[in-house]
Each structure stands twice: as C-alpha cells, then as structure tokens.
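Below is how a single chain appears once it has passed through the pipeline. First comes the sequence as given, then the structure the pipeline wrote out for it. We keep one example in the README because the format questions we get most often are answered faster by looking than by reading.
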Amino acid sequence: MFTVTFWKDAAERAIRTSAQALLALWATDISGVLEVDWVQAASVAALAAITSMLMSIAATGVGNSQDASAIK
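Resulting structure:
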C-alpha cells in the first residue's frame, strides 16, 4: 500500500469509477444534457471515487499489498 504503483493503480480505478457513475447518471436522465443537475451528478461521482479508493485500500488486506487489486 505504500508504493507508487499502488497509488497509481488506485487513482486509475477511482477515476474510472467516477466517470462510470457520472456517465450512468447522464445516460439515464431522459431530459437533455443541459437539464442534468451537474452538482448532484458530480457529488455522486465524487462519492464513487472515494468508495473506490477505500475499496482499494481494503483490498491490500486480501490481495497483493503492492497493488489495489483484491486478487493475489
């Protein structure tokens, strides 16, 4: 968990998860792009990123402690 590789891996996962959450909110909104509540969407995306980082940290106790994967 104290390696650069771990934090790069965890950050990549968090960014990807955040983007997926944001796209899911945008894609499921039947109104137009200009009518999306972007503050709420950004809040959900940020929460997804935080959750992803916490899961990566928790995975070090299960998987390889050198990366963010829960699989050895």
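Residues 4-59 form one domain.

See the next section for the split statistics.
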